[in-house]
TrEMBL record:
CDD domains: SCP-x_thiolase. One of its GO terms (biological process) is isoprenoid biosynthetic process. The gene is thl. Keywords: Acyltransferase, Isoprene biosynthesis, Transferase. Coiled coil: none annotated. Residues 239-383 form the Thiolase C-terminal domain. InterPro entries: Thiolase (IPR002155), Thiolase-like (IPR016039), Thiolase_C_2 (IPR055140), Thiolase_N (IPR020616). It comes from the Archaea. NCBIfam families: PRK06064.1. This is Acetyl-CoA acetyltransferase. Its EC number is 2.3.1.9.
């Protein structure tokens, strides 16, 4: 197996982007990542694109071919990767494995979703849950995570204010991120008093509906310095699965796939939680910002709420979480999220994150899940 490096990254602005189509978004992200990497378009051997459900959002399938064609990369090998909201993380992992195995040298892993063209995104997003046992019974993603939040509050005494604080920190970080969907600060009071979506979660506990794309260029580590002075190395790329339904889990306050993928990633990279300087976690709802730091091993189970309240997840805290603003405030274009998380960690490790820069960041981590954790992908990156 060969070591793998990231030599180029990019992310479009995230938001409700009426003036950009699906194909324009992915082309913008892809071409900017290629430019950032210093490779030529003709040097690319393969492309993996994370996308959850273009069929439902824009009535377009066969997107791998569409993107290769629209970006002028034909006859490149182009493959779509789908694992709900973890599609981007898995597209990155497919790219890493293709380069590590020696099958391809220069690969682009990207992600894209155009969610705002439908009147109601909720039924499309709900296809990431179990149709027979969950969606068709009327549950939605906000309500699934609301049940997890209630249980966490009951089991561990997590407070409503602690959940709100996850969103407050994300918005503070996003206010320093020009690519974020919601680059403004909010307060705990504002979260508590915003519209109830699924009790106890309000509008400001939820990630939004987002258009956007992101892309990453990978190559063998030994070739990276030909293209860039600041390669970022992939130290671990792991993936795990859990039950798709919540009711099949022994404990709905733990996401088993996150725990397994994280454990394998620490082993593969030869690091512990103490070595991680920056982490982008999958906080699609505020409760997930708490579950993630517990299941990734940064704090003990049940102590996540208190840890957030004490401020350890701030950019200048002990474990800086989501310097980008996270899914909550940077935005969550499902298939693009896993790639955008890795792009943010690359900017942090290169020292290019401007006002949201974490001082001296050398090792970073991304955590991307699908649905309520049926799939999890974890990456550890280092300078
Ligand atoms: N955070 C902050 N503001 C939000 C927001 C969010 N999550 N969602 C919408 N808004 C804002 C909009 O910008 C808009 O502001 P404006 O009036 O100033 O223009 C206003 O709230 C109303 O927006 P609208 O699009 O009508 O909201 P909505 O009620 O249709 O949708 C949610 C709100 C929370 C239901 C929707 O964002 C949602 O479904 N989020 C979850 C997405 C999801 O499940 N992702 C997968 C996770 S696994």
């Amino acid at each position: 197996m060969r070591d793998v490096a990231i030599i180029g990254v990019s992310q479009t602005k995230f938001g409700e982007l009426w003036d950009s189509s699906f194909r324009q978004l992915i082309a913008e992200a892809g071409l900017n990542a290629i430019e950032d990497s210093g490779v030529g378009g003709n040097d690319l051997d393969a492309m993996f694109v994370g996308n959850m459900t273009a069929g439902l959002f824009i009535q377009q399938e066969h997107i791998a071919a569409l993107i290769a064609d629209h970006t002028g990369l034909n006859p490149i090998s182009s493959t779509r990767v789908e694992a709900a909201c973890a599609s981007g993380g898995l597209a990155l992992r497919q790219g890493v494995m293709a380069v590590a195995s020696g099958y391809h040298d220069i690969v682009i892993s990207a992600g894209v979703e155009k969610m705002t063209d439908v009147v109601d995104a909720t039924p499309a997003i709900a296809t990431a849950s179990d149709q027979e046992w969950e969606a068709q019974q009327g549950v939605t993603f906000p309500s699934l995570y609301a049940m997890i939040a209630r249980r966490h509050m009951y089991e561990y005494g997590t407070t409503r204010e602690q959940l709100a604080e996850v969103s407050v920190i994300n918005h503070k970080n996003a206010s320093k991120n020009p690519r974020a969907q919601y680059p403004f600060e909010i307060s705990v009071d504002k979260v508590l008093n915003s519209t109830v979506v699924a009790d106890p979660l309000t509008l400001l506990d939820c990630s939004p509906v987002t258009d956007g794309a992101a892309a990453i260029v990978l190559c063998p580590a030994e070739m990276a310095k030909q293209y860039t002075d600041t390669p970022i190395y992939v130290k671990a790329s792991t993936q795990a699965s859990d039950t798709i339904t919540l009711h099949d889990r022994k404990d709905i306050t733990t996401i088993g796939s996150t725990k397994v993928a994280a454990k394998k990633a620490y082993e593969m990279a030869g690091v512990t939680t103490k070595d991680i300087d920056a982490v982008e976690v999958h906080d699609c709802f505020s409760i997930n910002g708490i579950l993630a730091i517990e299941d990734l091993g940064f704090v003990e189970k049940g102590k996540g709420g208190k840890a957030v309240e004490e401020g350890i997840t701030h950019i200048d805290g002990e474990i800086p979480v989501n310097p980008s603003g996270g899914l909550k405030a940077r935005g969550h274009p499902l298939g693009a999220t896993g790639i955008a998380q890795a792009a943010e960690i690359v900017w942090q490790l290169r020292g290019e994150a401007d006002k949201r820069q974490i001082d001296g960041a050398e090792i970073g981590m991304t955590h991307n899940i699908g649905g309520t954790g049926g799939t999890a992908a974890v990456h550890i990156l280092s300078r």
